[in-house]
Amino acid sequence: MTIATSGALILSIALIAWAAVMRAVAGTWLQPAAFFALWWCVAGVAPLVFAPQEPVGPHAIVWLLAASVAVSCGALAGNGGLRTRRLQSLAAPTDREAKVFGFVVLVSVALGMGSNIAFLIGVGIPISDVLQLDRLVVVANQLYFVRYSENPPPPPPLAQALLSFVFLAPAAGGILFVLRRELRWKVLSLLAYLPAIAVTVLQTTKAAVLFALALWFSGYFATRLRLGKLAVFTTGHFVAAAVITLIVTPFFFAVAIARLASTDVALAGGLTKKFLTYAFAHMTVFSQWLGEYMSQPFEPTLGSVTFAGPLELFGYQERIPGLFETVIQLLTGDTSNIYTAFRPLIQDFTIPGALVVLALLGFMGGIGFRFVAAGRWSGMPLLVAAYVTIFWTPITWFWIYNSLTATVLAIFMTVMLVRLWRGKQQPAPLQENHWRRS
């Protein structure tokens, strides 16, 4: 472990302490004030422990602490204070919520798989080729090199148009998993991962499954809060985390092997170093970039990175793969351009401006949390948006992806549809004994 990393590890105690304080005052990790700090206790501290050979400067941890304070202040303001207020007896969801979200998952899975089929047809690959393992790995290898070629062709229009359904399926699936107790609906909510898995298998890109996981769990935790379930660290969640790890890790190894047009599992051993890079290099990359940024004159790019997706959509600029052309050389010999969500914000708006944006993220999440904790579905889109943005911060800024922005908007429209069908419910009288602190 380097001296810099040792200093960062010592400073991380303050980050952990801040997370604990926010949990104590909010009463639950689901309050964004605590949720952001908790997530970065994992995403920020784990690289210091499991990849100590890669240097991380203390200034990176100082930034994480400042970012956590900014999000927490915004979230507490949006929540209207420190207390988590919720009705002692929350109204149960009606059959309309269950039916609508069940229908959305069914349709989204179908159209999401349709996006994959349209992609194969658009690039001229027979569907029969993906039904044989030896042919599938060849196809995956070919598509991988095409995607990272100097001038990659644009994706087929129909596949791109249906891409949002690939991600809407898990977003609604996480909600459905909590709403419905019947086994068939639980199975359907898990089948919501299928379109994203298909994208990852065909195009050997891990991002699709990671997006699906972030969206599914964002919907899952927001819906648990709606039903008055505030616990995060439960036995069931620990078991589920272990099962997911046992499934996802070999799956990603298999995808990496497929990139080499091989089915030889013996290659998995040589890929371990790359997986450590994927999992833990973001702190080193961000730390090095932030150090360089602070030593140079500030020249804010005023949204060209943060709004790269919308600007490309409307023809104002072309988004480059990975957002940044420069990469950071790691001591392991690999390179990485995973700068976290903080580089786009800092580069566009400077450090003070980035903290303001993070405070606004917390404020949005705080409003959503307050509504959902009180049993109001209207806050679900805001809370889901806040959770998924936080989940994705170790990678990059979530809102640069147009298809993912459309997914969150679709959740908003689904909630509005439920409200229109159900009719507006009269809120419970705001008597003090109707609320209790969690």
Protein described:
β2 (328-329) and β3 form a beta hairpin. The two termini are 41 Å apart. This protein has 16 helices and four strands. By secondary structure, the chain is an all-alpha fold. The strands form two sheets. A two-stranded antiparallel ribbon has the order 1-4. The chain has a two-stranded antiparallel ribbon with strand order 2-3. The protein has helices at 3-26, 32-50, 58-79, 95-122, 133-147, 157-161, 163-179, 183-191, 194-203, 207-226, 235-259, 272-294, 308-313, 342-373, 380-392, 402-422; strands at residues 85-87, 328-329, 335-336, 435-437. It has one domain (91-423).
Write a brief caption for the model.
The chain is mainly α and 438 residues long. Helices cover 66% and strands 2% of the residues. A hairpin with a 5-residue loop joins β2 and β3.
Give the SSE layout.
Layout: H1 3-26, H2 32-50, H3 58-79, E1 85-87, H4 95-122, H5 133-147, H6 157-161, H7 163-179, H8 183-191, H9 194-203, H10 207-226, H11 235-259, H12 272-294, H13 308-313, E2 328-329, E3 335-336, H14 342-373, H15 380-392, H16 402-422, E4 435-437
Antiparallel strand pairs: 1-4, 2-3
